[in-house]
Structures are given as C-alpha cells and as structure tokens.
C-alpha cells in the first residue's frame, strides 16, 4: 500500500486548496442553514445514484429537492480527484463508513473491511473507476425475472450512450484498435476514457492474447454487451481526473435554487406513517447531525432511498419495513411485513497473483520512491498528465468455465447466458494496489474475480439503535461452486503467463501455487480472498405479482406508495462485472390529469445517467405518475 511521506502530504494539501469548487450555493453543513425542512422530494444519500436523481428532478423548477448525505463533501479531496491516489481513500478514514463483515466461515472465519463511501458522490467518488457495463445476458435476465422487457439490453443500451461522454485519454495517444467507437457516445454527462499513461506491460498483455488466442481471445470492446476475452481498460476518468456523480451531476447544477444538499446528515428512519388505499406512506425522514437531537424533513411527493445495499435495508428495517419476525425480536413496531428486506445479497469475491518482473517501469517505481512520486505529482498538478492520471490497471478480461467442467454435474450454471463470464481478470502494472503490504521490487499482478456467485448472504440489524452499524454477512464462498471458480481462475492466470512474451519479463511468482494440491489451493483462496464491494440484492426487485422481493420493476416499494429505492440494492442478482456503467430502466405510468404532461416532459430530459464504481446511478420520478428511465452504476 502506498504510504505518503510528510513532504508529499504538504504538497497534496497545498494543491488541494486549488481544487476546491466555488459552487457552494446549495450545499450546507448545518441544518440551521437550510431554507426549511419541507420539500417535494427527499433523497436519502448523496452518492452515485442520489445525486443523479437530484439533478434530474431539479430540472423541473417547480420541484424542490433535499439530499441528505451522511458523509462529507468531495470538494478538495485530492485523493478522490487524482486517480493514482485512490488507495488513500480506502483505509479507515472520514471518507469511509468503516464497516466490517461478520466472521466469514468460507474465509476461515476472517472478517473483512467492507468499503462504503461516506462522501458526496458515494462510491463513484472513491471506487477504482473501472467502467464496465456487463453482458447483454445480465440485462435480459433482469427483464425475465421482473417480467418487464424494459430491463433488457436492447432497451437499456441507448441510455448508456446518453450517460457516457467518451473523452480522449490524457496523453492523447492513438486509440485505434483499443475500443469500438460504435458502442460509445461523446455527448453524455459522465467522462469515460482509455488509459492516459503507457505502462510497458500493456502491449505485452495484448501480445499474450495473440499467442494464446484460444484461451484468451482479444476483445476490442468489453462494453459491447459481449465482454468475453481480454481488452483495454476503460475508466470513469476525464482529462486525468476522476469523473463521478458529484463532478458530473452535482457540481455543474449546484446553483439551482430548488436543489439543497445537507452534509453530515445521517438518516435514522422514515417517520410519520399513514395509509392510503391500503398502501403505507411515510411523510418524513428522520436524521441526526453529530451531537444533535433528531430532525425531520418532510416530503410532500416522494421519498427516494439511495443509501446503498447496506444503508437502504438498514433504514427500512429501523422504519418498521422488513421481516415481522426479525423486527418483533428487536421491539421495532412492524408497519410493513417484507421478509425479503436485507436478504438474498450477493457479491463478487477476488484473489490475485503477483510476479516479480525484469523491469523498472512498474507502479513500484513511484510508490517506493519519494522523489519519483513527487515528480509525478508535480506533473499531474501542472498538466494533468503522467502516471497519476490512472491507477495502473491496463486491461480487463472476462472468461467462462469449460462447459464440460465437472462442476456443472453438481450445480446448474448460475451465469446469465453464453455471453456472460464466470471469471474476471484484472491486469495491473505492479503489485496489488489493495494489498496491505508491498514487498520491495518490481511486479505485475493478475487479480481474479468470481463474478457469478451462488453464495447468498444477508444484511440484518445489530440492535434497535439506528446509529449502530448493521450486520453485514455476505457468506462468501459458502458454495462449492464459488470456490471452484476461483480455483479455475488462478489456474487461468498461471496459464496466461506461460505465453512466450513473458519469458524475458517475468522473474518468478511471489507465491508459487503451481504444485499446490486442490486442498492447498482451496486453503490459499480462503486465506487470501477478499471482496471488491459489489454487494447487491438487499432490496431486490421482482415481478409485481411475486410473493418475494422488495420493489417492483418500477422501483416502488411493494405495499407502499411514494417510496422508491434507487440504488444497487434493487438488483436481484449481482451482474457479471463491476457495477460501473450499470443501467436501470425505470418507468412509472401517469396517474392524474394534468400531472402526467409535466412528468412526461421531464422524462424526456432525464434519460442521461452516470456511471461509476460501485453501483448505482438512477434518475428518479416525480410522484405516482412518471415512468422515468435511469442508468445505474456501481
């Protein structure tokens, strides 16, 4: 892990002041500074999804919107702005909720740090910026599961384009043969680009795909809906800087008089319940600021939960929405019995391999050399070029298991279809950036990720106190299928480095697993595997007639009115790629005369959305009558 020296910190602090935006008209730190506590819409969470929702709604000047963000501002946080410094955000700090999982039996009873952003922009402000859409099959499966064809790839694809603003890489190199411009757009909101710094390992990876084409075919563009193969990384970076929901959807619009964002506002529960036509309605949102008594923000039209896969079910359950049995056990009055709240969560699991290499042009040439680090930082500060414009990942690959693998005699294939990977491979120009320690030397790394898990976990309450963190129990690697996939993935990584191109480059593996028995390899995985925090499903959507699920395909909470969920928690199955660039199509039919015209005109303007890391960007609708479209990213 990169350790910043004191002189580097001083340099960062000096430059941080120059990055602070002057657009602070509607961002508040103290509730007393708000113009009031009554709004048309209250959005819980100023993260990847919430800020997109806020921007879309406030396009209509007649709608007043309050965003309640528990964390801090992203303004001036250079560790977020500068891609290379992302690891500094991931340690325990004020930019994190600092969650941990429960002890995981599948990981030898280890508890893992579970990364959740605690700042404006959410995970789009502190993820690894990998931009992937997933497979066509992923979305077609969502359409099948919900009974709503609007979730299909063909219906979603135009909204990827409305979201994305394809941007030249920071070094303006010739990108011919590195992506397919036909599946991208230059007219959207959120910048996306190819790598802007040429690490020497990159061309070797392409050569390896040519030397081992059967096992590792080259894919011109993984974001075409057919991601299988190995291709150049695309990132949510523009002009050498991170692009996030905060930079793309909040900063340009913060001067709108109907948009209000309150920081340091942790929502505890939804309040003022009533019933209309048999539907539960909450009239307000209770929140606290540090050291304060609770406040209530009233929502005249709708409450939108965008608190994420951990935060959203936590708020629902403390509000009396969840399993009646579990809520009764904690003495929480039950207002709506929805047993699926906090259940059926799924996540990706990763483990990697590193090799020492015969090169001095690796990440370690910067992270282990204070002079080089300062020079690279100065270059970025002056020109937004150089190694700081990215984080050292050069390529990403997606692979399927052998269809004749013996594991399919025991388990049905959990992937969404033939264009969907079981394995993701992440190629880096150095030792794993997420490792707590880095040995001296120069390295390359292949991170492998199991992206089609069968294991399912839960988010449950720790107590009846809404300020206590919930119990996060993903139940990693509790299925034999999942451990099989990671075992196969590591073997694939080893095969990749047998290509002739590596003969004069790779010196030795940092851990030699070549002679491990199957049991030894399983133990290596359970001892070293971790998460890249792509949890979904805790408020999963299902068909309107389904007796399970939390939201309908329109993202309205089942059994409730004027309450929507717009974040990664609604995805019933984790997609087969990082959630960056994930799409959601979200519509709601008009209901009242006169209202629908206003809403539909807004709908036409709200079809752009953000993509980022860690999931989810969705525009939200006005109450009761709009069926808007939205795009989600993780």
TrEMBL record:
Domain annotation Glucose-methanol-choline oxidoreductase N-terminal: ranges: 308-322
Named cofactor requirement(s): FAD
Highest taxon of source: Eukaryota
Molecular function terms, GO-annotated: flavin adenine dinucleotide binding; oxidoreductase activity, acting on CH-OH group of donors
Residue positions binding FAD: 127-130, 267
Keyword Signal belongs to the record: yes
Sorted UniProt keywords: FAD, Flavoprotein, Signal
Keyword Flavoprotein: yes
Signal sequence residues: 1-25
Family statement drawn from the similarity comment of this UniProt entry: Belongs to the GMC oxidoreductase family.
Protein name from the UniProt record: GMC oxidoreductase
Organism: Mycena sanguinolenta
């Amino acid at each position: 892990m990169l350790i910043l020296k004191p002189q580097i910190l001083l340099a960062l602090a000096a430059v941080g002041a120059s990055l602070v935006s002057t657009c602070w008209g509607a961002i508040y730190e103290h509730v007393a500074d708000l113009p009031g506590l009554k709004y048309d819409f209250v959005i819980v969470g100023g993260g990847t999804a919430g800020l997109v929702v806020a921007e879309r709604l406030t396009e209509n000047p007649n709608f007043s919107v309050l965003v309640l963000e528990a964390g801090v501002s992203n303004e001036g946080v250079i560790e977020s702005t500068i891609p290379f410094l992302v690891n500094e955000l991931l340690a325990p700090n004020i930019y994190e909720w600092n969650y941990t999982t429960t002890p995981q039996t599948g990981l030898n009873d280890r508890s893992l740090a579970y990364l959740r952003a605690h700042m404006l922009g959410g995970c789009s402000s502190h993820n690894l910026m990998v931009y992937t859409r997933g497979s066509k099959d992923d979305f077609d499966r969502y359409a099948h599961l919900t009974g709503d064809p609007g979730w299909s790839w063909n219906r979603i694809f135009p909204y990827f384009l409305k979201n994305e603003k394809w941007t030249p890489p920071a070094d303006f190199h010739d990108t011919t043969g590195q992506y397919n411009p036909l599946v991208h757009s230059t007219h959207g909101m959120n910048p996306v680009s190819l790598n802007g710094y040429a690490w020497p390992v990159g061309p070797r990876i392409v050569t390896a795909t040519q030397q081992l084409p059967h096992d590792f075919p080259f894919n011109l563009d993984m974001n075409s809906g057919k991601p299988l193969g190995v291709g150049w990384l695309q990132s949510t970076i523009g002009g050498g800087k991170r692009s996030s929901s905060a930079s793309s959807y909040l900063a340009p619009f913060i001067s709108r008089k109907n948009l209000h964002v309150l920081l340091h506002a942790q929502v505890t529960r939804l309040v003022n319940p009533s019933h209309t036509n048999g539907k539960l309605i909450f009239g307000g949102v209770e929140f606290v600021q540090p050291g304060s008594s609770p406040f209530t923000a009233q929502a005249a039209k709708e409450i939108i939960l965008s608190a994420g896969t951990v935060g959203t079910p936590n708020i629902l359950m403390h509000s009396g929405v969840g399993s009646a049995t579990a809520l009764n056990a904690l003495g929480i009055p039950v207002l709506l019995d929805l047993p699926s709240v906090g259940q059926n969560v799924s996540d990706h699991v990763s483990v990697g391999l590193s090799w020492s290499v015969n090169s001095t042009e690796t990440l370690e040439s910067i992270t282990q050399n204070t002079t080089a680090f300062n020079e690279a930082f100065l270059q970025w500060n002056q020109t937004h070029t150089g190694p700081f414009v990215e984080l050292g990942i050069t390529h990403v690959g997606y692979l399927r298991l052998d269809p004749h693998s013996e594991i399919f005699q025991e388990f049905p294939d959990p992937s969404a279809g033939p264009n969907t990977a079981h394995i993701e491979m992440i190629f880096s120009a150095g030792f794993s950036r997420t490792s707590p320690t880095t040995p001296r030397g120069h390295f390359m790394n292949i991170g492998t990720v199991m992206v089609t898990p069968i294991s399912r976990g839960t988010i449950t309450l720790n107590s009846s106190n809404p300020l206590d963190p919930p119990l996060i129990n993903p139940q990693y690697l509790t299925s034999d299928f999942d451990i099989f996939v990671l075992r196969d993935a590591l073997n694939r990584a080893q095969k990749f480095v047998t290509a002739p191109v590596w003969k004069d480059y790779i010196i030795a593996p940092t851990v030699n697993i070549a002679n491990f028995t199957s049991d030894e390899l399983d133990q290596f995985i359970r001892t070293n595997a971790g998460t890249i925090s792509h949890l979904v499903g805790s408020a999963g959507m299902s068909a309107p007639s389904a007796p399970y699920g939390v939201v309908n395909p329109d993202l309205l909470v089942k059994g409730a009115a004027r309450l929507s969920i717009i974040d990664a928690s609604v995805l019933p199955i984790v997609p087969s790629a990082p959630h960056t660039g994930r799409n959601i199509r979200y519509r709601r039919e008009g209901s009242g005369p006169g209202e629908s015209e206003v809403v539909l005109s807004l709908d036409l303007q709200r079809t752009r959305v953000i993509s980022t890391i860690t999931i989810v960007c969705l525009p939200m609708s006005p109450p009761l009558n709009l069926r808007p479209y939205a795009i989600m990213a993780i």
